[in-house]
Amino acid sequence: QILAFVGKVFFFCWLQLMIRWTIPRFRYDQIMRLGWKVMLPLSLANLFVTALVVLLLDRGRG
To answer: What is the pTM of this model?
Structure first.
């Protein structure tokens, strides 16, 4: 069992290194644009949908 665990750990470490070496890095301005124009609207939409679902489920109980 310990050999299988160590093998899996090495495999996933190797996989992470391969992914990091092949995918190019983002510049600071690209990360900021992604955060403000993509992630923030998605998170706000997620917040509103979750609030709506909670409101509708709570209304069905009472």
So the answer is: 0.58
Tokens 């209304």 found at: 59
Reduce the DSSP state of residue 26 to 3 states and report it. Answer: coil
3 state SS of 23: coil
**Tokens 């495999």, residue?**
11
Instruction: State the total domains in the chain.
Output: 1
Vertex 46: Cα angle to 42 and 50 (nearest 5): 175
Domain that holds residue 25: 2-61
Residue keyed to tokens 């190019």: 24
**What is the rounded CA–CA span in Å between residue 1 and residue 49?**
44
CA–CA gap between residue 44 and residue 41 (Å, rounded): 5
Per-residue model confidence as pLDDT tens digits over 23-49: 888 899 999 999 999 999 999 999 999
